[in-house]
Each structure stands twice: as structure tokens, then as C-alpha cells.
Amino acid sequence: MRALKIKPRPAAVACVLALVAACSPAGTASVRRPGTPSSGSPSTSASPKITRHGPPGERPRAGEVRPVERTSGLPPVISSIPTRRKVVFLTIDDGWEQDPGFVKQVRDQRIPITAFAMRDAVEAKGTPDPAGGPGKYVGAGKWGYFRQLRNADVPIENHTLTHPNLRLLSQDAQRREICGSSQVIRKELGTRPTLFRPPFGNYNTGTLRAAKSCGIDAVLLWTATVQPGGKIAYQVPDKRLRPGDILLLHFRPNLARDFRILVDKIKRRGYELGNLQAYLAAMAVDR
Ligand SMILES: [Zn+2]
Fold it and tell me: What's the gap in Å between 201 CA and the centre of ligand 1?
């Protein structure tokens, strides 16, 4: 087993730990992830065109995020970040469509996102996830798009090989899906996923055991999905953004346009975009 990198911080906000079985979206807990490596020194002078280095997004303040203990030894299941700060996190799944404008947008505007790549989507095999909208396979079949994202400081994480309902699979079959995905990402991109998102949000204890054996540190769910046009579909009755929300988008046509609308909306509501990896690191607890 790999050792967890620990960055405990003082307490702040209560949160709930959900480690097993039910697909509760309320889980939170610890994680290791140092964020993508800094790409250089923190230059502040020189050309005004040069932006600051390192992964983009707001980072937790001292004491903002409470480290969460876990006792089972399995990867925690996280659907929101326990903070009171008006900060939300953007995640994007699958990879059926590869809008080139989106990479430029993320890179030039330093927008923090985390991508969960699914092999069959990226390689345009099989049928798109219905939740992702109609797929036209624009540019699919290529990992180069995800290399560009990786080079724009986007962590590329694990979303299985074939997008199955993991609850219907044995633990061994789940392991093949999760470990297989990590191997493909490592081969194609040279990075090793430490986060896993189960397709449809479906998982069970076998998923957590399998994920752990594949080197996954945390299972990431979400609190709201973003539909075409940048419309947010909340999973809570009051239909408002909440501090620590994790938003789920899909790689779909016109992503750059929808994303622009979404980011404007989030900022208008007084929210900032957080660096998920930095927040997860602040939540980490060894054990
Ligand atoms: Zn998916």
C-alpha cells in the first residue's frame, strides 16, 4: 500500500463520512493528492502576459477545511467539500466530445477543473452515456486532447474503461475496470489517477475495495450536474449553489460556450472556483 501524504489542518466544518454501500451523496473524508506539480517558480514580475505558475483555482485557507478521519481503510466517498467559503469545484466526465475551444479556455483563463476520462468515450467505442447528451464523437478516438488538458494543469482521473453499472459487477470485474483505466491513462498520459468517479454514481463496498487496490485515494461523487446551456440541475430542493459543491459536466458539443455561461453564473452568485486537489489535500487524514 502506498503511504498517504498527509496535510492535516485545523477544524472548521462538520461533515459526514459515508464509506460503504448506499450511494449516499453525503459522504466526505480524507484524501491525498498534492495537486499537479508546480510548473515553475512563482514569478510575479517580467512580462505582464505571464500568468502565475502552478495549478489554478482558489486554495483553502488555514483552518478552513476540517481533516476528516476514516477508520475503514477504504477510500472515502466525497460528494462535497466541507467548507463555509463560497467556493465550488468543477469536474468533467467521459470524453465523447473534444471541443478544442475548451482547452484554450481552460488554459488561458486558468480555470480549475478535474477531468474523469472514460476510455471508451475518449476512444469513441460503444454508446455515449445518456447523461452526457447526444454524442457526435467530435475529435474522439484520440488521447491527444487529454494530453493538452493535462498540459493545462488539468488532473486526468479515472472513470472506468467501459462505463458499467459497477453494482452489477463482481469485485474482480470492478477491479478490471478501475485498474484497467488507470493503466490506460498512465500509458497514454504518463500520469497515475488517484481519484475515481463511478459511472452513474453507482458503487458498493466492492467498488471501494477494488479502487483501493488500484491505487485510488478517494471516490468522487457530485452535488449538481450542469446541462447544455450552462443550466445547473441541483440535487437539493432549494436549488441554490452551496459552499463546497462539486459540479458535474460532460465533454459534449459546445462545451466552451456552455462553460463560459456557467463560469459567469457562478461568479455572479459570488462564488469562486476552487482547486479540488488542494482542498482534498487539506481534508486528508492518514488511516
Ligand atoms: Zn460518465
Answer: 9
How far is residue 116's CA from residue 284's CA, in Å, rounded to a whole number? Answer: 21
144-151 helix and 100-109 helix, angle to the nearest 10 degrees? 10
State the Cα–Cα distance between residues 122 and 75, nearest whole angstrom: 26
Ligand 1 centroid from CA 52, angstroms: 32
pLDDT < 70 regions, the chain: 1-53, 69-71, 126-141, 285-287
How high is the pLDDT of residue 103? 93
Instruction: Please give the full DSSP string across 187-222, using - where no structure is assigned.
Output: HHHS----EE--GGG---HHHHHHHHHTT--EEE--
Q: How far is the CA of 129 from the centre of ligand 1 (A)?
A: 6
CA–CA dist 10, 260 (Å, integer): 35
The single-letter code of the amino acid at 96 is W
Kind of pairing between the strands at 156-158 and 231-234: unpaired
CA of 132 to the centre of ligand 1 (A): 7
Give me the helices (H) in 1-109, please.
Answer: 100-109
Query: What pLDDT, on the 0 to 100 scale, is given for residue 62?
Result: 86
Tell me the C-alpha distance between 19 and 247, whole Å: 21
Distance 46 CA to ligand 1 centre (A): 42
Kindly give the distance from the C-alpha atom of residue 104 to the centroid of ligand 1, in angstroms, as a whole number.
23
